[in-house]
Design goal:
SH3 type barrels; Alpha-Beta Plaits; five-stranded antiparallel sheet; three-stranded antiparallel sheet
Length: about 375
């Protein structure tokens, strides 16, 4: 006699098992279909993208979870040999744990994806964080399964703890570079192709950003390898942000008696012509000058031009200086020249005297 839901059925338990499996499967299918249909209507009516992902996750997991849960409930009311009940219960519990681990892992990844869509920094490192999340859930789930199988976790945890400590000490620098690489990928202070200058003077194009180091290709065509931990601690000047165009500043000085309106006009004309002619210049930019220094013999000013990217400023300065010097000579605009005179002393030594004179186009001897 087999008792099922309080009813004694004169049937061999083994003959009843297929009927139980069939009935549980049908019932689980009906319940999951009804629940998913209701949930689908709610999602289609006023659901978000996150709700749609949750629905698709439940669509995959709800049916097997109901089957396992139903069989676990039936085992409590059906009479089977003790060893068979114990084996079946353990198998069903393991199945339920596997399904739960899968469900929680997918749910955590859904939350991660949703947060990555909202926060740019997290979105930049979504791949590594997703891998770490999977490893954590698999490790925790594996320990729960081992504990359910009766395997003692204390020796395993102790061994893993000592081993992890030893590995962390041995790989301290490597781990520091790894997490620094995560920070660089999340915060994006630099990206591939950016022209940067570090606090120690190294500069060039970012050629590669890895988990241990970042490679910078300098203008002499050499590769500078910078550990990520050192890079995040350095002050970085990024000439490609907020955009690649950059101002080109040149310092010029003229005689303090010069016609400043004429100087400004001629300098602006030369600057505009240079931007139109030299490759790498922003031809549509309107160059200008700003006076900033008034000394006893000269007036200093800054000329502002614009380059398409930082390295173009070298050629722009080169061509502008040549053109400006020739134009100043042509327009008889004087600029200060420092002269050094040596005065003989009675003891045979010489005393240095510096003066500032103005050179004109006439070429007065100094």
């Amino acid at each position: 006699m087999t008792e099922f839901l309080g009813i004694k059925i004169p049937m061999n338990p083994w003959a009843l098992l297929p009927l139980i499996l069939f009935a549980t499967t049908i019932l689980a299918y009906l319940v999951s279909t009804a629940a998913l249909r209701i949930l689908k209507g709610v999602v289609q009516k006023n659901g978000t993208r996150m709700d749609d992902r949750i629905y698709r996750l439940l669509e995959r997991c709800l049916f097997p979870l109901l089957i396992v849960g139903g069989l676990l409930l039936i085992l409590d009311v059906v009479t089977f040999p003790p060893k068979v009940l114990q084996a079946a219960q353990r198998l069903l519990v393991l199945s339920a744990l596997l399904l739960a681990i899968f469900l929680f892992t997918k749910a955590a990844l859904l939350i991660l994806h949703s947060a990555a869509n909202r926060y740019e920094g997290l979105g930049n490192i979504e791949g590594p964080v997703e891998i770490i999340t999977k490893i954590i859930f698999i490790a925790v789930g594996g320990m729960i399964i081992l504990d359910n199988l009766g395997i003692s976790l204390t020796p395993i945890i102790t061994t893993l703890g000592i081993g992890s400590l030893a590995v962390a000490i041995a790989l301290q620098d490597t781990l520091g570079n790894f997490f620094a690489g995560l920070y660089i990928s999340a915060d994006r202070p630099i990206e591939l192709g950016h022209y940067v200058r570090l606090q120690n003077g190294e500069e060039g194009y970012v050629d590669h950003i890895g988990w241990r180091s970042t490679r910078i290709k300098s203008l002499p065509n050499n590769i500078v390898v910078v550990p990520n931990s050192k890079l995040v601690q350095s002050i970085i000047t990024n000439y490609s942000l907020p955009d690649r165009e950059s101002a080109v500043l040149l310092q010029v000085a003229v005689d303090c008696h010069s016609d400043l309106k004429k100087v400004e006009r001629i300098t602006s004309e030369v600057a505009k012509e240079t931007l139109q002619r030299v490759p790498g210049s922003v031809s549509g930019f309107e160059p200008f000058i700003r006076y900033h220094t008034f000394s006893e013999s000269s007036i200093g000013f800054t000329v502002i031009l614009r380059a398409r990217e930082f390295v173009d400023n070298f050629l722009i300065k080169h061509e502008f200086i040549k053109s400006l010097q020739a134009r100043f000579e042509k327009e008889s605009i004087a600029f200060p020249i420092n002269s050094v005179y040596l005065k003989a002393e009675p003891d045979g030594h010489f005393q240095e005297q510096r003066t500032t004179e103005n050179r004109q186009k006439t070429g007065r001897s100094l």
